[in-house]
Design goal:
- By secondary structure, the chain is of the alpha/beta class.
- The protein has 3 domains: about 55 residues; about 190 residues, Endonuclease, Chain A (2-Layer Sandwich), CATH 3.30.870; about 160 residues, Endonuclease, Chain A.
- About 45% of the residues lie in helices and about 20% in strands.
- The protein has 20 helices and 20 strands.
């Protein structure tokens, strides 16, 4: 028995040492690597479980074949970007080129977008567009609740599938873990193709639980698309446990929908499903408006962290103003320094976040960064009416981005996200108007008041900040 005892300890020690070597070989952020190594050495049993669940990297791992990548890219039909003909500023032209270098994201002109800042108007228009579908519906949401609005959506998708429309739905498995399978089965039985992204099971637990598909994207017949921060849930209409649940979503038309098509079909194939036949049939027409747009997607399999780098470049380009809304503010070191540098250079940096969020842990972690912001001259506002779930950045006069990406570690490093980058003075003015209206409903955080907040709050915020890289 003694030799078995020592053999088990040796195997255990070799396993821990091997994992430490794997962590070192990944050449991650030194702070993260050191944190994982410390946990593995001090609490080896707990650390080993946590690492396999939350610490592994899938960067540069290929889930879709090169052949299928080429097939999808072929049908984006993008023109070569001509900075001089585009009329964009030097800074925005650089940003477009960065998106192209990171992921080959085409820049499209002649698009249009309608902004929705409440769930009722957005879902009313979405349902009308779905009702008009003749060929196909591609729909992707992080969360689709089995509630009133969720069942209205299911009924409509069933109706369209039974009328011959090709309906495909992607939902995140962990995001919908509380939703009973009968909700999805009802759609499947009626001909709707419904599949979970990264389905969690004991077999794949360690390789999937930490990575979520947070995208919210819809494409109807290749003529109308939706993108933004709203999930499918009653709280976006009635506020849930809040008086208001504020968010932003866009209804988009124009050639940019080729990128919507590419994104959805990529995720569909990522799950092991064949590329939809409809993807080659998208023949979008120019819109009457002339908004320049670029769809940027990112995820844990990518090499660069596309959206975080685009944000970093956009913030660095700012000359006068940076306006931001985010439900959770847990910036990476680079993005925090970029915002501080902008504010110290006398650029007007304003951030609106909710006073009360749907997660106490994330609220305390987010608030831990406020002191640093105030010291640099960044203006912080607490949205008072309810939960502010919108994700938008508005810079100077011609740049805006709206999408699913929160300003936090999880969105930048662990989630599959999508944001629409809009290069337009007209669109920027509309978004700025919404931002300033929300600012009137918010309370500015003053340095003196923040320094004199309760000590227990300061302690909670400091502790939660330690967890921010994995929240």
């Amino acid at each position: 028995m003694t030799w078995i005892y020592w053999a088990l300890w040796i195997v255990y020690g070799v396993t821990i040492l091997s994992v430490v070597l794997v962590v070192l070989s990944e050449n991650r952020n030194p702070v993260k690597s050191l944190a994982w190594i410390t946990v593995l050495l001090l609490l080896p049993a707990v650390g080993l479980v946590l690492y396999f669940l939350f610490g592994r990297s899938i960067k540069n791992k290929r889930f879709i074949s090169r052949r299928n990548r080429r097939r999808l890219k072929k049908h984006e039909q993008a023109k070569a970007f001509d900075a001089s003909a585009s009329g964009l500023s030097i800074e925005n032209a650089q940003l477009v080129r960065l998106g192209q270098a990171l992921m080959g994201a085409p820049y499209y002109e002649d698009n249009d977008a309608i902004i929705y800042d409440n769930g009722k108007d957005k879902f009313d228009r979405l349902f009308r567009d779905l009702q008009q579908a003749k060929k196909f519906i591609y729909l992707q949401y992080y969360i689709i609740e089995d509630d009133k609005i969720g069942n209205q959506l299911a009924d409509l998708l069933i109706e369209k599938a039974q009328s011959g429309v090709n309906v495909k739905v992607i939902y995140d498995h962990l995001g919908n873990i509380k939703v009973k399978n009968k909700y999805y089965q009802r759609m499947r039985d009626a001909g709707v193709e419904v599949f979970p992204f990264f389905k969690i099971s004991l077999r794949y637990l360690g390789g999937r639980i930490n990575w979520r598909n947070h995208r919210k994207l819809c494409l109807i017949d290749g003529t109308v698309g939706y993108i933004g921060g709203m999930n499918v849930a009653d709280r976006y209409i009635d506020g849930g446990k809040y008086d208001v649940w504020r968010d932003l979503h866009l209804r988009v038309t124009g050639p940019i929908l080729r990128s919507f098509n590419h994104s959805f079909c990529y995720d569909w194939n990522f799950m092991g499903r064949p590329i939809p036949e409809d993807f080659a049939k998208v023949d979008v027409k120019p819109s009457a408006n002339n908004l320049g747009m670029q769809l940027i997607t990112s995820g844990p399999t990518g090499q660069w962290g596309n959206i975080s780098l685009m944000f970093l470049k956009a913030i660095g380009n700012a000359k006068r103003t940076i306006y931001m809304q985010t439900p959770y503010f847990l910036p990476t070191e680079g993005l925090m320094r970029a915002l501080e540098a902008a504010a110290l250079a006398k650029i007007d940096v304003r951030i609106i976040m909710p006073r009360n969020t749907d997660s106490a842990v994330l609220r305390h972690a987010s608030f831990s960064y406020i002191k640093d912001c105030l010291r640099a001259g960044i203006k912080i506002y607490f949205y008072e009416p309810g939960m502010l779930h919108g994700k938008v950045i508005i810079i100077d006069d011609e740049f805006t981005t709206v999408g699913s990406t929160n300003f936090d570690f999880r969105s930048f490093e662990h989630n599959f996200e999508s944001n629409l980058f809009v290069y337009s003075r007209e669109f920027n003015e509309k978004m700025t108007e919404i931002f300033k209206r929300d600012m009137e409903l918010s309370t500015r955080v003053l340095p003196y008041d923040w320094d004199h907040r309760p000590r227990i709050d300061k302690m909670k915020q400091s502790v939660m900040r330690l967890l921010s890289p994995i929240l």
